[in-house]
Amino acid sequence: MELEKTNNMNTLYEFYNVLLTNKQKGYLSLYYGDDYSLGEIAEEFAISRQAVYDNIKRTEKILMDYEQKLKLAQNYSLRNKKLDELANYAEEKYPADRTLQSLINNLEELDDKDE
Fold first, then answer.
1. Sign of the four-CA dihedral 48, 53, 41, 1
2. CA-to-CA distance for 98 and 91, rounded, in angstroms?
3. Max Cα-Cα span within the chain
4. Residues 47 and 4 placed together within one structural domain of the fold
5. Confidence (pLDDT) at 113
6. What is the per-residue pLDDT for 115?
7. 8 A C-beta contact, residue 28 and residue 59
8. pLDDT digits (tens, 9 = 90+) for 45-80
């Protein structure tokens, strides 16, 4: 469960970090990205452990609210799943169709450019 939450928060952070304050980015990046403890983050920023905890919880809620409204991560995941299905189907049914393969590759590259 904890690993799933960490992966989810990291995904949401990737999509919405530009909407966060520098402080929120710093706390979440250290906590979820670098696996710092609350105490280590508190020491790094010279604040209380409780202040770090409160900020992280608020920021988690903000990220989940963004996703609930905008659904960027959900749509990205769904789009990748459908693109994989299309690529597999094209490879199975039309392996010699280089134009189709090229079009699928172009679609895959669109998301790669955004990363």
1. positive
2. 10
3. 62
4. yes
5. 64
6. 55
7. yes
8. 999 999 999 999 999 999 999 999 999 999 999 999
